[in-house]
Every structure is written in C-alpha cells, then in structure tokens.
Specification:
The complex is a heterodimer of chains A (521) and B (231). Chain A starts with a helix and ends in a 33-residue tail after the last strand. With 521 residues, chain A is an alpha+beta fold. In chain A, a hairpin with a 5-residue loop joins strand 11 and strand 12. Chain A has a five-stranded antiparallel beta sheet with strand order 2-1-5-4-3. Chain A has a five-stranded mixed beta sheet with strand order 7-9-10-12-11. In chain A, strands 6-8 form a two-stranded antiparallel sheet. Chain A has three domains: 164 residues, Beta-Lactamase; 92 residues, Helix Hairpins; 137 residues, Heat Shock Protein 90, CATH 3.30.565.10. Chain B is α/β, with parallel strands linked by helices. Chain B has two domains: 120 residues, Rossmann fold, CATH 3.40.50; 96 residues, Orthogonal Bundle (Arc Repressor Mutant, subunit A). Chain B has eight helices and twelve strands. In chain B, helix 2 runs parallel beside helix 3. The N terminus of chain B is likely disordered. The chains are: A alpha+beta (521), B alpha/beta (231). The interface between A and B is large, with 48 and 47 residues.
Chain lengths: 521, 231
C-alpha cells in the first residue's frame, strides 16, 4: 500500500488527481464547473470563429477574384496582341481602378506593369503560384478565351494578401492580383477578441455558479458536521432541521434518528446507573438507623463484657467490634455515594497544617510510630476534617502495609501544600500501583478481611480532588511506598462544585464593613 | 435548673424506637436522667412539663421537624440543644445551627462522644469569676452570668454566653475558629467551624446595634474573631 501510494505520488499527474480528490468539495466543484465552462465556451467560440472566418474570407475572395476576372476580360480584349510596356502599364492601372482596391501586376515579354501602389512586384508572388500559373495545366478549362485563375493567401510584412494569378492565353500576359485582407483580418481579430471575452465571462460566471452551488450543498453538510461534533461532545439532544435537497434531507433524518437512538440508550444507561447508585445510597442510609441504635448500646455491652460469663463475653466483644466495623463500612459507603452524587461539601477553615497533622496522629495514638517533619506556621485554607480523613488513611495505610519508619513530610511548593507519607516497607508492586485508588481494590486477594473497607484510599483521593488537589502513589528508589498529597493553599474548593460551602455565614469581601484594623496578637 | 449532684435532666426527642431506646439506655448509664419523646409535638409537651437541662433532638421527625422544635423552644428558652443529624456535611447542620442549636452529633453516634458533648454544653453555663465588664452599652456580669444591653437583659444561650465570655476575656485579641471550638465547645480537635460562625451570627443579632455591621464582635479575615472594646 505504502509503496504504491508513494509511486503514484511520484507521478505528477496522478499526484495532482489524488490531491484534487482529497481537497475540499468546494474547490473540486469549482474546478469541475470551470473546466466544463471552459471546454464549452472554447469549443463554441472556436467553431463560431472558424465558420465566420471561412465565410468572410470566401466572400471577399470570391468578390475580388470575379471582379479581377471580369476586369481582366475587359482589359485584355483592348490590348493589342503584342502590347508595349506603356500599354501594359495603362492596362494594369485601369484594372486596379475598381472599388475593391487590389493591385495588379501584368507581365509580358519582359515588361512588368505594376498598378504602382507601393512595393508589390512579381517577386512578391509566391513561387508555387508562379509555377501553377506558368505551367500548362491539364485539368484547366480548355475553352477558347477561358483561362484558369489560381489563387493563394500569403502574408507580406505582416499583412495578409490574397494573390490571384493567371496566364491569359499561351503567349498572352500573365496577370497577378494582390488583394489586401487587412480589413477582414481586423474584423476577425475583433471577433476573436469578443469571443475570448465571452469565454472569460462564461468562466467567471461558472466559478460564481459553482461557488453558489457549493454553498447550497455545503451549508447542510457543514450543519451536519457541526451537529455531529456536538453529538460527539455529549450534547445528545442535538437535532437537525430537515430541509434542502432530498438526499441531504434524508441524511439529516438519518442523523436525527441515530442521535435519538443514541440519546435513548445513554439515558437508559445513566438511568440504570443512577438507580443503582441511588440504591446504594438509600441502602446505606437505611442501614444507618439500626446501626445507630446498636452503636448506642455497644459501650454498655463492652463495659459489661468483663463481668459476663466467659463463654458469653467473647460473643459480646465480637458483636461490639463487628458493629463498629459495620458502622465504618456504612460511613465509607455513604461518603462514596456522596462523592458520586456530587453532594459532598467542603467546609473551609484556616488551619495550621502542623497542628492538624499532630492532632491526627495523636488522636489515633500513632505519635510514637510516625516521624513528623512539619514546619510550624503553615496555614492552609482547607476542610480540616476532610484533610484529616486523607491523612489518617495515608498514615494508617503506611503503618499497616508498609513498615517503619513511617515519615510524614510537609512542604510548601509554589502555591501548593505538599504532604508526603513514606514508609520503609517493601513498596507497592508495579502492577498494583495504578489501582491503589480503585474502590474495593485489594492488592492481595487473600488478604485478611479485617484490614479495612477497601474504600479508604478511594475516599482519600476523592477528598483531595474536591479540594482541587491530588494524591499520587509511587515507590521510593530506596524501597518503600510514598504517597504524595498536593492541595492548593487557598480557595481550595473545586471551581464549579455545586455544593462548595465556605464555612457558613462568614462575611468576606470589600462589602464587609467589619475589616481587621490594627494588629492582633 | 440542674439538680444537685451533677445529675442532669435530658430530654431526648427521637422518632425511631430502637435509637431512642438505645440512646436512653446509654445516656442513663452515663449518669443522666432521661425523658424520651417520639415526636416533636410530644417533645414540646414533655419539655413544658419536665423543664429539662438539655435537649437531644433528632432532625428528621414526623410532624413538626427538629428545626421547628428548636425554633419554638428558642422563642422562650435558652437551654442547650444538641442536634442528632444524619450527616456532617448536610444542609441539616447549617439550618439546625441557624435555628439555634448549640452543637450537633452525627449518627451513628458513640454514646461516649454524645456524653462528652452534653457535659461540655452544660459546663458553659457554669460561673467562673465574679467581675463585671462593660463594652459600650453592653454589660457582662460574670457573677450573675447575665448580659445587659442598655439596661435590658439579653437572653443568651449558655453557648452564646460562653463565646462572649471567651472573647471578652481576651479583648482585642483575635481567636481562631479552632481555638474557639476548643475553648467553648470543648471539641478535642478539628471541630466544625460552622458552629462558631453560626453562634457568632446569633450573638451579633443579640448584642450588636446593627448585626450586619458589627462593631463589637469583629471578623478577622484569615484568622477568626475578635472582641473590640469601643473607642
């Protein structure tokens, strides 16, 4: 394929055709129209020109020759058999004195008589004509007093001439006639000029027509293209107005039907998706009511477990711990459905990042297990509870799956807050790395079931995203995994988020008359 | 008011039988005396009969909902109200705080957490010193735990009063929302800043001449709030 196409591109003719085929429809239409118009106009003009030329020349020629013949007849009979040069000259002048304005050259016995208008001489007579005139001719009329007129068209000094010639009779004078065709030529030239202009006009007209036709044809095509683009961009309610030529209307209708079918399918799919999400949301919501009641009494059960029958106490403890696990799972599930539905909200506050991380670690009794490298005084505008969820997930994961030392490093890079959580464990297998933020993805299928809901990192990632930040996972060259949380330092809400909330009624902006003044400790 | 010996009388308004029973059990075990109602109407009736020290109020109630119960109680009484809400980022929280609740807990709630919140709210009404301060026409009497504005008694909830006391204890000093959450609400860490904002809003409505243009409790952008003595 490549070879043949290269080869054909090598040939200029095929290349041009190929290029023409691939250029726009508009250009092709114009070229075709122009070619058709050109061929038609040129052939019509050409034929008209040649017919005209023939007719004009023939008429002039016939008139000149017949006039010459009759004039010759008249003059010759007046001439003596052996005329002198003076008599010949008189005869020539007499012959040339007609309305048709031709020159006459008479030649006999070495005498040359010229009607004396300029440069014409027997030398001007073409050799072929001389030969034809002076040679005896077999096919010429042989009647007495008859002679054959030969003629030829020549150009002398740029002016076309009709040259007629004859030998009156054997021994008689040889007569030549020179008729200028300059007038005819100028008539024909102006005709050719007019025809060229007409051809040019036809060409221009055809190009304009082609442009018009292309526009009428291409406008629906352009509309169709635009509609298809919109459809591709997800605007499934795009429809075309059915109008124009039958083929285009048909195409528009097909497009509309396709779009309708597509829309119906997408709607059905998203309705199903919506229904299933709705189901999960409703279900987790429903699960919460009994869980709330159960959670309310777990503390009592736990406190009493020590005093219970040793057979019963483990059962009670199991119920208590599993109730808490179930509560966590349902909480996470609800959090996920909130992200899916876009109803998750950000409550922003200015917090000291170092305080936030210290509290996060302290509350979960991880202080001894974590090396914290966080300069004090970094204040970021974030949702502290969501960031706490992210940090607890990342640090908890590092402690659980990685190994000591777990390091938490906080830095400000440009306008971003960067928190790196690294561990000294074996790292994350390369094939697992892209999936660590997937829901319910567990690196080891046989992993013990008590190791979390499988939603933790997914929720952490969503929490970062809703702040306009990211979490990435990577392996350190020294071994061990490193999770990097990047959050914008300010105005951390994802722009355009429908439910972005800014910490309730907090007056800000220039309209606020209650501006800080002076310094505050 | 509160009975001696630290036993507080709570009113629990919750429509779900299981949750109501569970919370009643847990709170009783934590040492509170609990009355329980299954609807807003019953709750309001019981409130008038028993005059509890604190109300734990579910938001989603059949009939009149938790917000309306909250509003009706606030018309006459300033006792602490803790909301039981479905989710922390719900519109429930904002509306609940605007209708006058002091704090909220998210279901499913651990009884220990709820008990801690209850005790924290109740502590806000306790007297701590005996001095009296005045800011313009606002006079804060710390011994009587009353606030007057132009001689008129202001009806403040214990939370609003405690917030005013904390701010007035450090005049001219900006306190961050997280600091105020620790001082007033006793949240261990990462409390919801909307609690502070809503309470400041309610407090301004009561003590400021023009609540939308506050001169006493001022916002310090990027930090929190500050109480400015009038010049």
């Amino acid at each position: 394929m490549t070879d043949s196409s290269t080869a054909s591109r090598g040939k200029p003719g095929t290349g041009l055709l190929r290029r023409l085929r691939t250029t726009s429809l508009r250009i092709r239409l114009i070229v075709v129209f122009a070619l058709v118009a050109l061929v038609a106009a040129v052939s019509v003009s050409g034929i008209a020109y040649w017919l005209n030329r023939d007719a004009v020349l023939k008429r002039t020629q016939d008139a000149a020759l017949s006039d010459f013949r009759s004039s010759l007849d008249r003059t010759i009979t007046d001439l003596p058999l052996q005329p002198g040069c003076g008599e010949l000259q008189t005869a020539a002048t007499l012959m040339a004195d007609t309305g048709l304005q031709y020159d006459v050259v008479l030649e006999q016995n070495g005498c040359v008589a010229n009607s004396a208008r300029g440069f014409i001489s027997p030398a001007s007579v073409p050799r072929t004509l001389v030969t034809a005139v002076t040679q005896p001719c077999s096919y010429c009329a042989s009647d007495a007093g008859q002679y054959h007129l030969f003629w030829q068209r020549i150009t002398m000094d740029g002016i076309p001439y009709l040259v007629g010639g004859t030998q009156v009779q054997p021994g008689g004078p040889t007569a030549y006639m020179f008729k200028s065709l300059a007038d005819e030529r100028s008539d024909l030239d102006s005709l050719a000029w007019s025809l060229s202009i007409a051809t040019l006009l036809a060409l221009v007209g055809s190009v304009l027509l082609a442009q018009l036709a292309a526009t009428t044809v291409l406008r629906p095509v352009a509309r169709l293209g635009e509609a298809a683009r919109q459809l591709g961009a997800g605007r499934l309610d795009t429809r075309l107005e059915i109008s124009g030529a039958a083929e285009l209307a048909d195409l528009s209708q097909t497009f509309n039907q396709t779009a309708e079918a597509l829309q119906a399918q997408v709607e059905e799919l998203s309705a199903r998706e919506h229904a299933s999400r709705r189901f999960v949301a409703d279900m987790s919501h429903e699960l919460r009511t009994p869980l709330t009641a159960m959670t309310a009494v777990t503390d009592i059960l736990e406190d009493e477990a020590d005093t219970l029958d040793p057979m019963i106490a483990p059962a009670v403890r199991l119920v208590v711990s599993e109730t808490r696990r179930l509560t966590d799972l349902v909480e996470n599930l609800m959090e996920v459905t909130r992200f899916d539905a876009g109803t998750a909200k950000v409550v922003l506050d200015d917090v000291d990042v170092s305080d936030l991380i210290t509290s996060c670690i302290d509350t979960r009794a991880w202080l001894d297990a974590v090396e914290l490298d966080a300069p004090r005084g970094i204040v970021a505008r974030v949702d502290p509870r969501r960031v706490d969820v992210v940090l607890a997930n990342l640090i908890g994961n590092a402690l659980k799956h990685g190994g000591s030392p777990v390091r938490v490093q906080v830095r400000v890079e440009d306008t971003e807050l960067v928190v790196r959580v690294s561990d000294g464990g074996p790292g994350i297998p390369e094939d697992v790395l892209p999936h660590v933020f997937d829901r319910f993805f567990k690196a080891d299928a046989a992993r013990r079931r008590s190791e979390g809901s499988g939603l933790g990192l997914s929720i952490a990632s969503e929490n970062a995203r809703i702040h306009g930040g990211t979490i990435t996972a990577a392996n350190l060259p020294s071994g061990g995994a490193c999770f990097t949380l990047r959050l914008p330092m300010t105005s951390a809400v994802e722009p355009g988020h429908p439910l972005a909330a800014d910490g309730g009624p907090r007056p800000t902006g220039p309209a606020d008359p209650d501006r800080p003044k002076g310094t505050s400790a | 008011m509160r009975q001696n010996g630290g036993v507080s009388h709570l009113l629990l308004i919750e429509d779900d039988d299981a949750i109501r029973t569970g919370l009643e059990l847990a709170l009783t075990r934590q040492g509170h005396q609990v009355s329980a109602a299954a609807s807003g109407e019953d709750g309001l009736k019981l409130f008038k009969e028993k005059r509890p020290d604190l109300i734990v109020l579910d938001v989603m109630l059949p009939g009149i909902d938790g917000f309306e119960v909250c509003r009706r109680i606030r018309r006459t009484d300033q006792l602490p109200i803790i909301l039981l809400t479905a989710r922390s980022d719900d519109i429930d929280v904002v509306v609940g705080l605007e209708s006058g609740a002091d704090d909220y807990v998210v279901k499913p709630v651990q009884p220990r957490v709820l008990d801690a919140r209850i005790r924290a709210v109740l502590r806000r009404g306790e007297r701590e010193s005996t001095d009296s301060l005045s800011y313009g026409d606002v006079v804060i009497d710390r011994s009587a735990m009353t606030v007057t504005k132009a001689g008129q008694d202001l009806q403040l909830t214990p939370t609003e009063l405690r917030l005013l006391l904390e701010l007035s204890g450090r005049p001219g000093q900006a306190l961050s929302r997280q600091q105020l959450l620790r001082l007033v609400w006793e949240h261990d860490y990462l409390g919801d800043s909307r609690l502070v904002d809503a309470c400041v809003q309610r407090l301004r409505a009561k003590v400021e001449d023009v609540p939308s243009a506050p001169t006493l409790i001022r916002t310090v952008r990027g930090v929190g709030y500050r109480l400015d003595p009038p010049q």
